[in-house]
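About this split. The held-out portion is used to measure sequence recovery: a designer receives only the structure tokens and must propose an amino acid at every position. Recovery is the fraction of positions where the proposal matches the reference. Here is one held-out target exactly as it appears in the evaluation file.
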């Protein structure tokens, strides 16, 4: 499968801002079959089927921790 578009965005947010972004993502997933994402002033619509695969990975270390959530279809 050829990759058409890949967008990566890393930024620093407060815990509350990160939670608000995740809540909006969850609302979109629950309500419709697409996600509206913005990056560098551009808006992207990503179609999402009724069933997805979700992978959660947690890394805990002395120098910091990491939570990765991957949703694929």
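Reference sequence for scoring:
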């Amino acid at each position: 499968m050829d990759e058409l578009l890949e967008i990566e965005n890393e930024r620093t947010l407060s815990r509350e801002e990160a939670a608000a972004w995740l809540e909006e993502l969850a609302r979109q997933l629950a309500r419709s079959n697409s996600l509206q994402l913005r990056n560098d002033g551009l808006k992207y619509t990503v179609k999402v089927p009724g069933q997805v695969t979700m992978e959660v990975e947690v890394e805990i270390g002395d120098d910091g921790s990491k939570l990765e959530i991957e949703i694929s279809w």
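Annotator remark: Residues 15-72 form one domain.
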